[in-house]
Amino acid sequence: MNSKQIRQTFLDFFASKDHSIVASAPMIVKNDPTLMFTNAGMNQFKDIFLGNSPAKNARVADTQKCLRVSGKHNDLEEVGHDTYHHTMFEMLGNWSFGNYFKAEAIDWAWELLTGIYKIPVEKLYVTVFEGDEKDGVPMDSEAMGYWRKHLPEERILKGNKKDNFWEMGESGPCGPCSEIHVDIRDDQEKLKIKGRDLVNEGHPLVIEIWNLVFIQYNRKANGQLEELPARHVDTGMGFERLCMVIQNKQSNYDTDVFQDVITRLGYLAGRKYGSNEKADIAMRVIADHLRAIAFAITDGQLPSNNKAGYVIRRILRRAVRYGYTFLDFRKPFIHQLVAVLAENMGGAFPELIRQQDLVINVIREEEDSFLKTLETGIKMLDGIIEDTKKKDHTDVNGNVAFELYDTFGFPLDLTELILREQGLTVNREGFELAMEAQKNRSRSATQLETGDWIELQQAEGDGFVGYDTLEAKIRINRYRKVKGKKGEFYQLVFNTTPFYAESGGQVGDSGSIEANGIKTEIFDTVKENNLTVHLTRQLPENPGEDFTAVVNSINRRLTENNHTATHLLDHVLREVLGKHIEQKGSYVSPDSLRFDFNHFQKVTDEELNRIQKKVNELIRTNDQKDELREVPMSVAESMGAIALFGEKYGDQVRVIRFGDSVELCGGTHVKATGTIGQFIVISEGSISAGVRRIEAITGSKAEEYVENQLKALKDVSILFNNPADLKGAVDELFTKYHLLLKQAEAFEKENAVKLKKELLQQVEIIHGINFLAQQIKVENSAVIKDIAFQLKGEVENLFLVLAAEIDGKANIHVMISDNLLKEKGFNAGSIVRDLAKSVNGSGGGQPFYATAGGKEPSGIPVLIQNARRLLNSQG
RNA sequence: GGGGGAUUAGCUCAGUUGGCUAGAGCGUUUGACUGGCAGUCAAAAGGUCAUCGGUUCGAUUCCGAUAUUCUCCA
Fold it and tell me: A156, A347, A664, A784: most buried, per Cβ within 10 A?
């Protein structure tokens, strides 16, 4: 069976058991401060387990794209070195939300593995929870009973709390779990040591493939467990491992999931997989990371320099690094593997095919820039090596290596590798110390203390009512205090709210809540998981009473203008630039709107002009808003609604239509497009390879902008006495100005030459030296400098002192011919300092030329005398 | 969110105790050579040294702020 069949078989099997098959949620998580990426199959169902929202289907199955690169599950540094760790992987899972429980979950798992996938029974082991006295949980004899039907006692093992009791977090839903392990060692190995002794012992060939979690408890904040009324099943089976087992391989990377990519990579590198240990590691790293990056990009997460985007960038760089070091790639190569990946996985994940060009371009650009980073790093390292050797040291200062890593992004392992070739090492201790200091700095800067939720009441409410009203009677259900570096604030959760929480690019509402004539300001509204959280600096005096919540309507209206304009822009972009346009991000605030989209060239001025014009036409058409709140996804699709990759939609979606523009959207919009007034593009630019950004303003902001522009234009026009052709007038002035400037320069030069000629007449010979000391009249010191250098070129044996009064200050220049410096030991710097005493100033410069300034120009004649005396005394 | 770096000619970059009237290579323009293409040689043009402020006799260089950007940590 190939991997495509294996995946499909899983889904078909559970469909036949009345499960509804759902799509994978995006790998990039939004609206959850505790999680950056989806790291387990259950993530998208978290709200159901927490009881925040009801389950739409009691039985569900899917394959979920997961990424484990940060936080609790951080496998990044392991990947490639063994044969089974991955950054991105697929988790096959089936769920029961208060529906079936242990019996069915166990029976079906067994049926699928042994009956359909035909995995030999004698390779399998299962585990059940042994119980825990402290928690008062007995051994899971129920599960044990069901397993006994399928396999002999000696293949059923008891596991401890660490392996066989699953918890989501410190508190919340939890329960015992049963794991299915498989022993894929060869017979010889099996004779030496029994498989059952290797279960959960970290052996690469005796591995867990399926975890069946039975959620039946809730852990309270005080640590106690209570029975849940509704019991759930949550299972997860690693797809790549499953393929390895079914295809009789001993490494995930030997399955067809990875082999296509590895083969292609081998071709590009001119090496064969399996012929060299280090090269093999590199090839595994690259094959794995390619998937993570490609899927992240199609989910809308581009590599960038912070947060999730930065994690993606780091993964890509790790891949480039391995390719650079062990496969000798010096030019971008990873992007050349995208086509193979798309062919392999595009069936199950169509976004890969649809966005293939974008993925290739983004990866290539990233590779390019990192290879450049490596190049400059290597140059710097060369300097460091030279330095170290000069000092006769054998190890490089840890701080230096850290700077290379921290500031210039040059990886430590590469530093060490290159140093080793030179017989040098890095002082690891110093490096780690510097790293620790950096971490401490960051930690102390981001410390956020979150207090416990304080439950006030459980008032029933209508949730979000802000589509229809900006004012509502509300009650505060719970609140908590959050302490950050910038001070403290409170998070409030209402039963009903007219406040829109930041999402879909639209900023959160601000406003106030009021009781007994006392207002409490709400400065922002955000979403945490599915909760709408209102932020305030101050807690109302009596938080339990009734409030009137009022949204800042001015800002809301301005924001709506911009949001609707964004939809119109999206629509027009497809019309003007082509159907390939897809939203890659957007930001809608009261002040302006920002829209990012994939497009591979600069949007020309002419196109930009047409875009702006068309949007304004649509505004004037004054299309009425057509808002459909609860539409089945399939209906929305048939309406031609634009959906976003990387966005998770429910079965029921909200559709916003203005004329031909139809989008799935949760944001707030104007009643009719005419309200927007006017749309003006402020800028167009690139934010990354293949992604462009348009910024625009609307309504009163646009009006203000036009007014300012017109006023500026008018002001300029008045300066020119309102000419018929303003541009022509400015052009003419400009030309004249340049001409005059040239003439003035020429004049100045001429004067300087004249002055120089006069000065040449004044040269005297003192002790065989051509001496000249004069006060001259010039406009700026650059002219004196020019004259001094000219004289130096024309007069040998020169000792020159020029002084001038410029802007009420003395300006002194001393120039001495090179031969005199040696012969007479002159130093212009010390001479000028000495002379400057007469004008109450100081100065310095090089031995042959120095300048000084002084506050008392009246001393210049004395200064000239002193210069003469100085030379006389040299006799 | 915090730390560190970068910003010099159209492009890629040099330019360390603050003073060398700001440089190189590529590119551009012009001229010469060759029957043309191409090439070789010669010359020229091109810079508010990111912006604003400060220290100084003097700032591309030192200090502060801002902008843009890279990078590491969270």
Answer: A784
Residue A525's nearest CA partner among A452, A477, A466 is: A466
Tell me which residue of A23, A253, A9, A260 sits closest to A113, measured CA to CA: A9
Instruction: Count CB neighbours of A422 within 10 A.
Output: 15
What percent of chain A has a predicted confidence (pLDDT) above 70? 96
Cβ atoms < 10 Å from Cβ of A678:
20
The gap between A825 CA and B20 C1' (Å) is 20
Interatomic CA–C1' length for residue A707 and nucleotide B1, angstroms: 38
A49-69 burial by CB neighbour count: b if 16+ within 10 A, else e?
beeeeebeebbbbbbbbbbbb
Confidence at residue A810, expressed as pLDDT on a 0 to 100 scale:
86
* Topology adopted by domain A449-542: Elongation Factor Tu (Ef-tu); domain 3 (2.40.30)
Whose structure tokens read 């095919």?
A353
Q: What average pLDDT does range A644-650 have in this prediction?
A: 74
User: What is the arithmetic mean of pLDDT over A534-556?
Assistant: 93
> How many angstroms is C1' of B43 away from CA of A742?
22
C1'-nearest nucleotide to the CA of A448: B1
CB A614 within 8 A of CB A575: yes
Confidence bin at A841 (pLDDT 50/70/90): confident
Which nucleotide has the least CA–C1' distance to A841?
A: B57
Q: Provide φ and ψ at A78, rounded to 5°.
A: -80, -30
Domain A556-707 falls under CATH 3.30.980.10: yes
For the stretch A745-754, contacts whose Cβ atoms lie closer than 8 Å and that sit 24 or more positions apart, written own/partner, are A748/A779, A748/A783, A751/A783, A752/A778, A752/A783, A752/A786, A752/A787, A752/A790
Give, in Å, how far the C1' of B72 lies from the CA of A716.
Answer: 48
Q: Domains of chain A: which residue ranges?
A: 3-254, 356-441, 449-542, 556-707, 745-872
* Chain B bases near protein Cβ (<7 Å): 1-5, 13, 19-21, 56-58, 70-74
What is d(CA A806, CA A748) in angstroms, rounded to the nearest whole number? Answer: 16
Could you tell me which of A10, A12, A47, A43 has the C-alpha nearest to residue A25?
A43
**pLDDT above 70 (res A485):** no
- CA at A807, C1' at B58: how many angstroms apart? 15
Q: CA(A448)–C1'(B2) in Å?
A: 13
Lookup: nucleotide whose C1' is closest to A849 CA:
B19
In total, chain A counts a number of residues equal to 875
Cβ(A339)–Cβ(A321) under 8 Å?
no
List the single protein residue with the shortest CA to C1' distance from B72.
A406
CA atom of A290 to C1′ atom of B60, Å: 43
Spatial distance from the CA of A236 to the C1' of B5 (Å): 45
CATH of A745-872, one of 3.10.310.40, 1.10.599.10, 3.30.70.270, 3.40.50.880: 3.10.310.40
A790 neighbors A756 (Cβ within 8 angstroms): yes
**Dihedral of the alpha carbons of A130, A131, A133, A136, in degrees to the nearest 10:** -170
Asked if A41 and A62 touch (Cβ cutoff 8 Å), the reply is yes
How is A61-95 classified by DSSP, letter by letter? Answer: EEEEEEE-EETTEE-GGGTTTSSS--SEEEEEEEE
Q: Distance between CA A504 and CA A653 in Å, rounded?
A: 14
Three-state SS annotation for A225-259: EEEEEEEEEEEEEEHHHHHHHHCCCCCHHHCHHHH
